[in-house]
C-alpha cells in the first residue's frame, strides 16, 4: 500500500508557541514524510452505582509487548474481549500516553519524545495538552477521577515540582523519581505532598485503589493505574537496561493486582488492560521503531455487555479516550482522531479502518492489514508485506 497524502490536523487548536515548535519539528525532522489519516467511522462497584454511569479502571503497563504478554498467566484468566490487532500510533511512552489522554495522533497533540524541547511533560505543558484530556472530560461529567503511577517523563523532578497536580484528577498519586529509577522505595506525590512508599512499587496499587474506590461513594469513578512494570531496569541492583530474562518477574505484582480487581469487580465496572508501547529484545532491547514488535500491544476489556472473545479489528491507543467517554455517556468537547470501540465491545462488525499512521521523530509509516510502509526522515523508504 503506498504512503497516502497528509491528513488535515484534527483536534484542539494548540497555542501559537506549540504551533511554532511542532512546525519546526516537522520541517527539520519529518521533512519528506507523509501522514495517513484516521478513518472516522474491576473493582468493588461504588455503593448505589449499580444502574448509573459505569465505573472505569485502566491498567496501563509500561513496555509490555505482546510476546511477553503471551507468557503471562493473566492472559488466560482475565477474560473479556481481547483485541488481537491493538496498536499504538507512536511506540514511545510519552507520545503514546499523550494520545491515550487526548485521543489525538502525535502530530496533533505535539508530544513527540520523552525529553525537551519536543517531549515529556515539558512539551505537554508547552502545547496546553492538559487543558482537554479524558479526566477533564469525565470530571465535568460528574466522575470522581484518580491517577496512580507513572505519568509523563519529567513529572515532579525536571519539568514540574512534585506539588503540581495535572488538571482533571481528584486523587493524584504520581511517581516523582527520574528514570531509570527501579522498583523499590519509590517517591510519589500524594496530591502534591511527597511520600516514599517502602518495598516493591507494585504492591501499593491495590490498597490505594481500594481506598480511592471507597472514597468515591455513590459517585461514578475513573481510575488509571500506571505501574512501571515491565520497564527496565530488571532485577535488584541491575544497571540499565538490565537482564531481559527478569522482565516477567516485574509483572507478578501487577498480575496479582488485576486478579484481585477482577475478583472484586461489580457489575457496573469496566476494566481496560493495555500497555503504552511494545518492546523488542533483538538486536538489543529497545522500542521506538515502526515495526509490530514495538507498536502492537495487548488490549483486553472486561465489563457490562462486553462480549467475551477475540476481536481482529484495528484498535488503537487513540481510541481509548473516545471509547471511555462514550461508555460514560459523554463525549470529547473537541474533535479527536480516535473512534469509540463500543460497537466492537458489543461484538458488532461495523465498517472500520483498514490502515493507520505510526509516527515518531525520524519516521512516519502506514500500517495496513497486509503491509507496512515506512518513510524515514533521511529519505529511505521501506515496504514490508505482512
Give structural notes.
By secondary structure, the chain is α/β, with parallel strands linked by helices. The chain has a single domain, classed as Alkaline Phosphatase, subunit A. Helix content is 24%, strand content 23%. It contains 13 helices and 14 strands. The protein has helices at residues 16-28, 66-69, 74-77, 93-102, 106-109, 120-126, 134-140, 205-216, 247-250, 252-264, 292-295, 320-327, 342-345; strands at residues 55-61, 81-87, 144-149, 171-175, 184-190, 193-200, 221-226, 269-275, 299-302, 309-316, 355-360, 363-368, 371-376, 381-385. Strands 6-5-4-3-7-1-8-9-2-10 form a 10-stranded mixed sheet, sandwiched between helices. Strand 4 (171-175) and strand 5 (184-190) form a beta hairpin. It starts with 15 loop residues before the first helix and ends with a strand. The relative contact order is 0.23. Residues 1-48 have low confidence and may be disordered.
In short:
The protein is of the alpha/beta class.
Amino acid at each position: 500500500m503506498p504512503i497516502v497524502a497528509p491528513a488535515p490536523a484534527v483536534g484542539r487548536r494548540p497555542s501559537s508557541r506549540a504551533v511554532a515548535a511542532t512546525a519546526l519539528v516537522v520541517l527539520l525532522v519529518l521533512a519528506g514524510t507523509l501522514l495517513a489519516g484516521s478513518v472516522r467511522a474491576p473493582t468493588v462497584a461504588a455503593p448505589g452505582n449499580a444502574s448509573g454511569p459505569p465505573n472505569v479502571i485502566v491498567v496501563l503497563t509500561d513496555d509490555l509487548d505482546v510476546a511477553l504478554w503471551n507468557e503471562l498467566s493473566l492472559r488466560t484468566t482475565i477474560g473479556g474481549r481481547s483485541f488481537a490487532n491493538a496498536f499504538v500510533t507512536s511506540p514511545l511512552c510519552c507520545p503514546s500516553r499523550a494520545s491515550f489522554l487526548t485521543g489525538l495522533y502525535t502530530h496533533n497533540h505535539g508530544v513527540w519524545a520523552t525529553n525537551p524541547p519536543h517531549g515529556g511533560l515539558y512539551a505537554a505543558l508547552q502545547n496546553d495538552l492538559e487543558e482537554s484530556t479524558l479526566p477533564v472530560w469525565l470530571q465535568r461529567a460528574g466522575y470522581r477521577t484518580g491517577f496512580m503511577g507513572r505519568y509523563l517523563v519529567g513529572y515532579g523532578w525536571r519539568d514540574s515540582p512534585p506539588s503540581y497536580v495535572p488538571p482533571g484528577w481528584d486523587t493524584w498519586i504520581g511517581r516523582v523519581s527520574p528514570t531509570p529509577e527501579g522498583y523499590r522505595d519509590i517517591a510519589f506525590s500524594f496530591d502534591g505532598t511527597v511520600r516514599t512508599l517502602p518495598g516493591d512499587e507494585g504492591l501499593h496499587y491495590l490498597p490505594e485503589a481500594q481506598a480511592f474506590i471507597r472514597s468515591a461513594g455513590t459517585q461514578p469513578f475513573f481510575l488509571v493505574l500506571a505501574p512501571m512494570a515491565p520497564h527496565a531496569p530488571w532485577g535488584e541492583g541491575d544497571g540499565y537496561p538490565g537482564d531481559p530474562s527478569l522482565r516477567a518477574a516485574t509483572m507478578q505484582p501487577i498480575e496479582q493486582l488485576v486478579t484481585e480487581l477482577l475478583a472484586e469487580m461489580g457489575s457496573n465496572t469496566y476494566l481496560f488492560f493495555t500497555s503504552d508501547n511494545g518492546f523488542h529484545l533483538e538486536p538489543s532491547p529497545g522500542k521506538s521503531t515502526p515495526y509490530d514488535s514495538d507498536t502492537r500491544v495487548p488490549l483486553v476489556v472486561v465489563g457490562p455487555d462486553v462480549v467475551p472473545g477475540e476481536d481482529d479489528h484495528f484498535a488503537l491507543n487513540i481510541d481509548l479516550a473516545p471509547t471511555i467517554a462514550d461508555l460514560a455517556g459523554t463525549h470529547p468537547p473537541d474533535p479527536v482522531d480516535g473512534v469509540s470501540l463500543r460497537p466492537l465491545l458489543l461484538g458488532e462488525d461495523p465498517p472500520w479502518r483498514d490502515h493507520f499512521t505510526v509516527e515518531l521523530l525520524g519516521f512516519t509509516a502506514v500500517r495496513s492489514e497486509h503491509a507496512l510502509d515506512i518513510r524515514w526522515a533521511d529519505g529511505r523508504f521501506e515496504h514490508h508485506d505482512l
